[in-house]
Amino acid sequence: MTGTHDEDAAHPANGLDEVVHQRVRLGILTITHEARRVEFGYLRTQLELTAGNLSKHLSVLEEAGLIEVEKGYEGRRGRTWITLTALGAKALADEIGRLKKLIARVEDR
Amino acid sequence: MTGTHDEDAAHPANGLDEVVHQRVRLGILTITHEARRVEFGYLRTQLELTAGNLSKHLSVLEEAGLIEVEKGYEGRRGRTWITLTALGAKALADEIGRLKKLIARVEDR
After folding, report:
1. Domain A13-107 belongs to what topology?
2. Which residue of chain B is at minimal alpha-carbon distance from A9?
3. Residue A100: its chain B contacts at CB < 8 A?
4. Where does the Winged helix DNA-binding domain start and stop, copy by copy (chains A, B) (predicted)?
5. Closest C-alpha to B25, from B49, B41, B1
6. Residues linked to residue A43 through DSSP beta bridges, in sequence order
7. Where are the domains of chain A?
8. Torsion over CA of A91, A97, A98 and A104, rounded to 10 degrees?
9. Quick check: A21 and B27 in contact, CB under 8 A?
10. So what's the ipTM on this one?
């Protein structure tokens, strides 16, 4: 991550934040954005991940404050629910903005 | 990477290929697409990378057949030139297509 330089002068790829841009995490943010509150198993199916791999990426997003992870029960079964935070929604919007700039540069040629 | 499933049914984040999607590599492909043939030092400056980090990502792209790396001289100075291959141009176009699908899903909400 670079962060501090002049974004307009730099190549749009520099502005991409690995926390958000990474394929699986971008998927998690997109799905929680679509569904607001999603169950762990749903994310796992949608993104075709192992539980371990999904957990690892959820931790990165939770530590960055982009999602909230809530553990509870549905009947007797343990369930984990994931919600996008306001910061997460902002980070996803920023990523989309940068991707659009990058796409525009590719398509201008 | 998933690769074999029905792309239309799956979430667009599944179709993203880590070789191309990774932030630095997406930057390299975008810049070589813009400039056709670029010098190592130019890429390094544009993407604000150390030589070692850039080399590592160039190797991944070269092994995947997405770029060609050519070593030569400019006067007495060693130079490394990077060119996008036809396969690389195709891979970048595929990535852009998938990103657009993903952006459309985010913006539909």
Report:
1. Arc Repressor Mutant, subunit A (1.10.10)
2. B46
3. 103
4. 24-103
5. B49
6. none
7. 13-107
8. 160
9. no
10. 0.84
